[in-house]
Every structure is written in structure tokens, then in C-alpha cells.
Write a structure and sequence with these properties.
The complex is a heterodimer of chains A (211) and B (680).
Chain A (H helix, E strand, L loop, with lengths): L2 H13 L3 H13 L4 H21 L5 H18 L5 H4 L4 E6 L7 H12 L3 E4 L6 H11 L3 E5 L7 H13 L6 E5 L5 H7 L3 E2 L3 H10 L1
Parallel strand pairs in A: 1-2, 1-3, 3-4, 4-5
Chain B lengths: L2 E7 L3 E8 L4 E9 L5 H10 L9 E8 L1 H7 L6 E6 L11 E5 L15 H11 L5 E6 L7 H13 L4 E3 H4 L5 H31 L6 E4 L5 E3 H6 L7 H14 L4 E6 L4 E7 L2 E2 L7 E2 L2 E2 L8 E3 L5 E6 L2 E8 L1 E2 H7 L2 H11 L20 E4 L10 H9 L7 H8 L8 H6 L3 E5 L2 H7 L9 H13 L4 H29 L6 H12 L16 E4 L3 H11 L4 E2 L7 H8 L2 E11 L10 E5 L2 E5 L2 H22 L2 E16 L8 E16 L3 H7 L9
Parallel strand pairs in B: 1-4, 4-9, 5-6, 5-7, 7-8, 11-22, 19-21, 22-23
Antiparallel strand pairs in B: 1-2, 2-3, 9-10, 11-12, 12-13, 12-16, 14-15, 17-18, 20-21, 24-25, 24-28, 25-26, 27-28
Helix pairs in contact in B: 1-6, 2-6, 3-4, 8-19, 10-15, 14-15, 14-16, 15-16, 16-18
The chains are: A alpha/beta (211), B alpha/beta (680).
Chain lengths: 211, 680
């Protein structure tokens, strides 16, 4: 099968949320001797970008995004281990987390997907994550991007606390902090000393790629 | 009439100025060379040089000095032990002894871990006879200083070594930065003591019994007693004094102050009478501290920037060279040789793509430092031998050695500080065209002749062009500073460079032109400013002020500064309390306290904080102290769908106590406002 055809089909599999098809195509790609990184970028990521754009434009619903993400991970599970170690070293490390006190993690999961699709090595710290865990992970793993999310107002303060701890510990200047979640706003991001706030995952990852 | 005596001990010169403070008038001034081995000699010379009857009615002596900054950069100072509590110090600066004991607090000011008192005592005892100062810094001490205070109390019981706590020097987050600040502060204690003793010796000899004040890096002044405890705050007080001095000499509250010295041009901005402070804390010797100091940008264009003519092109480099006119005062024999070179400008001297290697027959080198063994080549060593007594040019030395000039590795020797370069500089240009006369202009004229010969220009034409080049470069540096202030970025792309060039040349491009105007006057300080700044101000349509006594501007700044003490407090609403007047916790140098409402918390901060800074200001020597509070509520809008209105994140309060030195208070009442301006 031709390389371009495989990539096109992989993208289509992600867009239509077909995990089995995505996995099979990933295996075919490796069998054909295609480089894993190329297959990720030209196939899976492009498909995910299409869905991301459509979601941002309100053309598809959240379940479709989640299905697409599922299909992308099915392909990634095959392709990521096939990337030679030398190529994965220079991938930027990002950590994603829903802050302590909150368990609403759909948005965080989309950001995680988009970051993975964007070439980041993602540390998913999960939901209800204490300040200390985020700070320790950032320092120990030399994280370059920290993305925090919350859906509720009382838990917003944890974002500020995380940034304050990073500042006190001296790691703040070494990473980019971006936040998200419906109650947050650009003015909130500015007040707490975060670098960025975005309303959707696609735009956030595009912004991160630019800095 | 009350007089103030201002003294500025710089790296090269010590300035003294006697001011009639009530009238804002300079009565007498003098300059003398700084005597590094015994500062009091230079200070005495400067004070003596004023030729006035002392003691007259001197109400205050005020000192500004770059000594602290220099000491840190040069790694001088006493030995310091650091005790960090609750976190390891990142060792970004060396310390003589170090111990890390458990303890520290959390963001909410709760104890993260109990203080390990036994380990703390052992650490203090182990440092007792081996260091001259102890710095203590605890994790999140800005939210609760308890562990630092307890550690200091323990140190006080066990030793009599001076002890410094991080939370007293800064209330900003940043454990390592506070540690660096405390260590540097501890190191400087004997340095500042020695400096103040030098001044007091001179005062004693002259029968002056007025209080001694010291300039701070933020443009205010403090008493001798406070300076002895917090010498780190004198860091960068040179540029601060220059800004405050410019304000006093011109009476302008808003101005761009450009101080053109030998090595650099410093650009600072006064807005509403205050210099802007470095928000994150000053960087000293490459390390970020938490010291509040004026934000001044420094460019490498000054009176002794090296001028090169290479490949028929004129280049003004940020490299340093000793001006020909100054060098000829010390080694008169080079005049003849410069003249000879000027008479034969076409001589075959190699040119180079690399400006630092370009050979000029009017450039001479003299050895200033011995090389370390084995660090240089045989040829370079022979070259150093030749230039150990008197200066030679590379071509001359190469002729003696019988080698090609490029065999000598000038850039390396220069970088390692073994040789001093002597050459054509902007100072020579001014001597050559007669606009500035401090030294013998003959070598400068010959140097210019050599350069213009190589450019096939007439001397006058060359000198005009050279001055225009200097003006363009400092204008460009000024614009860069203004852009940085406005946008926070200093990267200039092709388009912005084009706009800069259009605005500086005043010439249009194909379809458009560009003019940049300044909304503030430029205040020029330094000897060569009258030669360059009028042309620069004209480019920007700006008013130019060249104060008469600008050469002693720093000393004037020292005398006219106010005493300002500040305290910052953080008021944090309890988590989840979104009431109009929520429960709050106050964090400050006074400790951590809880309140039922924000109103009560604010009242407490203003009352207790006000008293705290008031007492500090009085201790710093102030009278007629005025206390003001700057309250900033950090609020934010919620995202759409979460209701209108804004939510309080936290409240920052800055309490400021400002006053004039005690002896001067009367003068203020009579004729000046709180910032030392004359009332119109």
C-alpha cells in the first residue's frame, strides 16, 4: 500500500473514531517500513487536528472528539514504542492535571490528547491532584509545560497555589504554565501569574507550539 | 541655612558636593581619584578639594557608592555560613559553610515540618568560630517567618556573629533568590562597615558631627545603622543616585536620564519623580536577587569605546580602549609613533574580517597582568615581555620578533585581562575637533589623521562623520531601552530596524518616512554629553537638559534622597469564601494572622504595618514621616456562564513611610515638598 494512502486512511479512521481500523493501519505502516514519527504526524495527528478544528467550530459534539481520541490512542499505542530512543529525547515534556478538589477531567483529557498529537511527551497526573504532586513532578521530571484545569470556582485557587510554590522553589521560570476550564479567564490567568489561558484544547496546543 | 554634604565613591573618581538643601543649590563641588587601598584618602581629597570652610552648618552627610556592587562582582567580602531550613539551597552562589535543617512552612503559613532545633544548634556551633556572618533562610518564610526568627534567636544565644534572615530583606516568593540575597548581605557587612568608617574618619578630622546616611539602590537613603545591617540594599545605588540627582538638578519629575561615562552609557527613566524598580529583583554578578533596585539599562558605548577603520569602513565597537590622549599623558613617547603612523596611512597593515583582530598602527598594548603558567603560547609570552615596560603596537612588536602580526593572539590576551589596549576612541574624537579639552589633543589629532587617511577623507569630514556615528549608536541604544520599557521585548527584527534607521536619519524610504518622538525631556549626565546629546535630542524632537553640575550628579542624588521604608503584606481570602467581605489571613513580616473580615484585615495591616514602617523610618533617621498605603485588590472575571462580576483573588498592600533626614526636616517645611523638590 502506498504511504500516502496509509496516512490518509489513518486520518480518516481517527476522524470517524474507528479504533480497530486505526490500530490495524498503524501495524501496516510499521510493516511497510514507514517511520513511526512520520505515521503519527502525517496520519493520526492530522485526523485529530481535523476533529479538533471541527469541535472548536461547533461542528461536532464532545463524544465524537472522545471517540476520535480513542482511535488515535489505539494507533499511538502501536507507533509510540516504535520510535527510536534518540528521536524521543527531544520531545518536550508536558504535565496535565485537574487541580485538587475537582474531578471533572474531560477537558483535561482532550488537552492531553492534543498535546500527545502535538508531539509532547505527556505526564497525565489525573484528577484531584494536590499542589505538591504537580510541583514535585515538574521539578523531578523537568517538565516544560504544565497545563492545569478545573470546572469549579472554589478549586481555582489551587492554580495560584501551584504557581506560588513553583516560584518559591525556583522552578517557575523554567516552565510554561497554561490553564483552562470554564470558570477561568485570561484576566484570572494574568492575576495568578500563569502564562496563558485558552478556551479549547486545539487553540491551546497551537499556542504552545508557537512558544 | 542647612547644608548637606554628598559623597560618591565610584570605581575611578570620588566626588564631593556641598548643597544648600533648602534652596536646592550646589554650593561647592570637587572630584578626586578613588583610592582603593584606603578609601578615606580619596574621600578626604574630594572633600578638601571643595575649598570651603569646614565645618559649616552641615546637617547631614550622605554617601553613595558602587563599592558593594563591585565587591560582589569581584567575589570579595567576609566568610558566610548559610543555614537553610526546609529545603536545600541550589548552590547558585558559593558559601563558606552550609547546613540544611528540617523545618519550613506551607503557602498558608502552617508549619510544614517542625524545626529541628537540635540540628540547628549543632550547625550554629559548627559555624561559630569559622565564619564571620550567618545567613538564615527558611522555606516560605515570607508566609510565616517563625522558623527564621527562632533560628536567629538560637544563633544570638550561641554566638555573637552577625545574623541575617531572608524574610527581612525581601517579602517576595523565591527561596533560592532570598538565600542569595541573605548570603550576599552577610558578606557585605564588613565591606560597608569599612566604607562608612572611612567616611566617618574624614568627618571627624574635619569636625563634622552630622548623621551619616547611605544611598540605596531604589533611590532612597537610610541611616548608617540600617546600612550596617542591610548593606545589600546599597547595591546599584550608583545608577539610583544618578537618577535622583538628575531630578534634583533639573526639577523634572518625568525624564529620560542618560549618563554617559567612560565605559558605558546608562539609561534610566523617571516617571512621576520615581525611578522604575526591577520587579523581579536586581541581578548582581549574574545572579537574581530579591533586592529592589532601579531598572537601568547599560549599553557598551562610552567615551572609551574602540574605534576601528577596517576595510575602509568606520566601526564603533563596544570593546574598551584607553583613549590616545590619556595614554600619551603617561607614555609621551607614543605621540611620535602615532604621528609616524598618521604620515604613512597607506602602509601595508593587514585587515581582517574579524574586527577584534584588525590591526591598527595607532593601537598600542601594554601588559597589565602576569599570565598563569602554561596558559599562553611562547610567541604571546615574548609579546608580553616586549610590552611589559611601555606600550607597543602589534606591528612594531611583530617587527621586533620577526613574525607576522597575526601570530600574536591579541583577542585571547585581552579576554584574559593581561593587556590594556590603547587606541582611537570617542574621547579622542572630541579632543581632535576641540570640543573637549582635558588632555593633550595632539595624539588624538594624529590618531584621527591616521584613521581619515585610511578612509580617504579629510580630517574635518572624518570627525563630523565619527561624531554622527556615536550619536546614531547612542540614539539606537535609547530607542532599544524605550522599546523594552513599552513592549517588554528587546528583539528587533528587520522591519523595526528599518523604522529605527528612518527615524534616526530623518530620511524617507521609497514611500514613507518614520519619526519617533519622545514625550519626556532627555537629561544628559557626564562629561561628553554636550558634544553628542544635542544632535540626538534633535532627532527625536526632544527637549534636552544638561544640568550644570551633572558631573557630580551622583553626589547630589545622595544628598537629596528621601528616607523611604516599605512593607508588603498579602491578604488572602479563606478558600471558597466568596462573600463581599470574606474571612482573611494576613501574611507579612509581622507574621501570619487570621481575621473574620477583609475590612478588619485591612485595618490591621494599615495600623500595625503603618506603625512598623514608621518606626523603621525613624530608626533610619527620618523626621516628619508620612505613611501611605497602596492597596491593590487582585480581582478576576469568571469565565462566561459563571455570573458577572469579579472575584477577589488576594489583596496586596504596600505601606510606605517617607521622610527627610532629621536635620533637614526644617528645610523641607520651609521650601520643599516630600520628594525634595523646590516649591514653585
Amino acid at each position: 500500500m502506498k504511504k500516502e494512502k496509509i496516512f490518509e486512511d489513518m486520518g480518516a479512521a481517527v476522524v470517524s473514531g474507528k479504533a480497530d481500523r486505526s490500530k490495524a493501519l498503524a501495524e501496516t505502516a510499521l510493516k511497510e517500513g514507514i517511520e513511526a514519527v512520520e505515521a503519527i504526524n502525517e496520519g493520526l495527528v492530522k485526523g485529530m487536528a481535523v476533529i479538533g478544528d471541527r469541535y472548536a467550530a461547533h461542528e461536532v459534539y464532545l463524544p465524537q472528539v472522545l471517540m476520535a481520541a480513542n482511535a488515535m490512542y489505539a494507533g499511538l499505542n502501536i507507533l509510540l514504542p516504535a520510535i527510536p530512543a534518540t528521536q524521543s529525547v527531544d520531545r518536550k515534556k508536558a504535565a496535565v492535571a485537574v487541580v485538587e478538589g475537582d474531578v471533572h477531567d474531560i477537558g483535561k483529557n482532550i488537552v492531553k490528547t492534543m498535546l500527545t498529537a502535538g508531539g509532547f511527551q505527556v505526564f497525565d497526573l489525573g484528577k484531584d491532584v494536590p499542589v505538591d504532586t504537580m510541583v514535585k513532578t515538574a521539578e523531578n521530571e523537568k517538565i516544560r509545560v504544565l497545563a492545569m484545569s478545573t470546572l469549579m470556582t472554589p478549586t481555582m485557587d489551587c492554580m495560584k497555589a501551584t504557581i506560588d510554590e513553583l516560584t518559591e522553589g525556583g522552578y517557575r521560570s523554567k516552565l510554561i504554565v497554561t490553564i483552562g476550564g470554564p470558570p477561568t479567564s485570561p484576566s484570572f490567568a494574568e492575576e495568578i501569574g500563569a502564562d496563558h489561558r485558552d478556551a479549547n484544547a486545539q487553540d491551546c496546543v497551537n499556542w504552545l507550539k508557537g512558544v | 541655612m542647612v547644608f548637606g554634604l554628598g559623597i560618591d565613591t565610584g570605581g575611578t573618581y570620588t566626588d564631593a558636593v556641598l548643597m544648600d538643601v533648602s534652596g536646592g543649590r550646589v554650593v561647592a563641588k570637587a572630584k578626586a581619584l578613588t583610592t582603593r587601598d584606603d578609601l578615606s584618602a580619596g574621600i578626604a581629597n574630594a572633600v578638601g578639594g571643595m575649598r570651603i570652610e569646614l565645618p559649616c552648618d552641615i546637617g547631614m552627610v550622605s554617601l553613595s557608592s558602587t563599592l558593594a556592587t563591585n565587591s560582589i562582582v569581584e567575589g570579595k567580602g567576609c566568610s558566610v555560613g548559610l543555614i537553610s531550613i526546609g529545603r536545600e539551597f541550589d548552590r547558585s552562589i558559593p558559601v563558606d559553610m552550609y547546613a540544611c535543617v528540617s523545618g519550613g512552612h506551607t503557602l498558608s503559613g502552617a508549619e510544614a515540618e517542625p524545626l529541628d532545633e537540635q540540628h540547628l544548634r549543632d550547625s550554629i556551633l559548627s559555624m561559630r568560630d569559622r565564619v564571620d556572618g550567618i545567613a538564615i533562610t527558611s522555606y516560605l518564610s515570607v508566609r510565616n517567618p517563625d522558623h527564621e526568627n527562632r533560628a536567629r534567636a538560637a544563633a544570638g544565644k550561641l554566638t555573637d556573629i552577625p545574623t541575617v534572615c531572608g524574610h527581612e530583606l525581601s517579602s517576595s516568593l523565591g527561596f533560592n533568590e532570598r538565600a542569595v540575597t541573605s548570603v550576599m548581605n552577610a558578606r557585605l557587612i564588613p565591606v560597608i562597615r569599612e566604607l562608612m568608617d572611612s567616611v566617618k574618619k574624614v568627618m571627624e578630622d574635619r569636625g563634622i558631627s552630622a548623621p551619616l546616611m547611605v544611598m540605596r539602590g531604589d533611590g532612597s537613603i537610610m541611616s548608617e545603622e540600617v546600612a550596617a545591617e542591610r548593606p545589600i540594599e546599597t547595591i546599584l545605588s550608583g545608577p539610583a543616585a544618578s537618577l535622583v540627582g538628575a531630578k534634583a538638578l533639573t526639577g523634572r519629575e518625568n525624564a529620560i536620564v542618560m549618563d554617559m561615562g567612560g565605559t558605558t552609557t546608562d539609561i534610566g527613566i523617571l516617571r512621576n519623580g520615581r525611578p522604575r524598580l526591577e520587579k523581579e529583583g536586581a541581578i548582581i554578578g549574574g545572579r537574581r536577587t530579591r533586592v529592589m533596585a532601579v531598572e537601568v539599562s547599560t549599553s557598551g558605548i562610552g567615551g572609551d569605546s574602540r574605534i576601528v577603520v577596517n576595510g575602509g569602513k568606520f566601526v564603533l565597537t563596544p570593546m574598551r580602549a584607553m583613549p590616545l590622549c590619556i595614554a600619551a599623558g603617561r607614555w609621551p613617547q607614543i605621540i611620535k609613533r602615532i604621528k609616524a603612523a598618521a604620515d604613512a596611512p597607506g602602509r601595508n597593515t593587514p585587515e581582517s574580517l574579524d574586527i577584534s583582530r584588525a590591526v591598527q598602527d595607532i593601537e598600542f598594548f601594554v601588559k597589565i597582568k602576569e599570565p598563569k603558567d602554561g596558559s599562553i603560547t611562547e610567541t604571546d609570552r615574548k609579546f608580553l615581555d616586549i610590552i611589559s615596560g611601555e606600550p607597543f603596537s602589534v606591528s612594531e612588536a611583530a617587527d621586533i620578533l620577526g613574525i607576522h602580526p597575526y601570530m600574536i593572539n591579541i583577542p585571547k590576551l585581552e579576554k584574559q585581562g593581561m593587556i590594556q589596549r590603547i587606541g582611537l576612541t570617542p574621547t579622542d574624537i572630541l579632543h581632535a575637533d576641540g570640543s573637549y579639552r582635558e588632555f593633550n589633543p595632539e595624539p588624538s589629532v594624529c590618531g584621527a589623521d591616521y584613521a581619515c587617511g585610511r578612509m580617504e577623507m579629510a580630517r574635518d569630514e572624518f570627525l563630523t562623520m565619527a561624531k554622527a556615528e556615536v550619536v546614531d549608536r547612542i540614539s539606537e541604544e535609547l530607542l532599544k531601552k524605550l522599546f523594552l520599557e513599552e513592549t517588554g521585548s528587546s528583539s528587533l527584527d528587520e522591519v523595526s530596524m528599518d523604522l529605527i534607521r528612518k527615524s534616526m536619519s530623518g530620511r524617507d524610504g521609497l514611500d514613507y518616512g518614520c519619526r519617533i518622538t519622545l514625550n519626556k525631556p532627555i537629561v544628559g549626565i557626564g562629561a561628553p554629553v554636550s558634544a553628542y546629546f544635542p544632535a540626538m535630542a534633535k532627532k527625536f524632537g526632544a527637549e534636552l537638559l544638561l544640568p550644570v553640575h551633572s558631573e557630580v550628579g551622583n553626589a547630589v542624588g545622595a544628598v537629596t534622597g528621601s528616607i523611604i521604608e516599605t512593607m508588603e503584606a498579602l491578604i488572602k481570602p479563606a478558600a471558597g469564601d466568596t462573600n463581599e467581605d470574606p474571612k482573611c489571613t494576613v501574611f507579612s513580616v509581622l507574621g501570619k494572622t487570621d481575621f473574620e473580615t477583609l475590612t478588619e484585615a485591612l485595618a490591621y495591616v494599615k495600623e500595625e504595618g503603618g506603625l512598623f514602617v514608621y518606626e523603621k523610618a525613624v530608626r533610619a533617621g527620618a523626621d516628619h514621616v508620612r505613611v501611605s498605603a497602596d492597596v491593590k485588590h487582585k480581582k478576576y472575571e469568571l469565565g462566561t456562564g459563571y455570573g458577572a462580576g469579579s472575584v477577589l483573588l488576594e489583596t496586596n498592600v504596600k505601606i510606605t513611610a517617607a521622610g527627610k533626614p532629621k536635620q533637614f526636616a526644617v528645610a523641607i517645611e520651609n521650601g520643599e515638598d516630600e520628594y525634595g523638590r523646590r516649591k514653585s
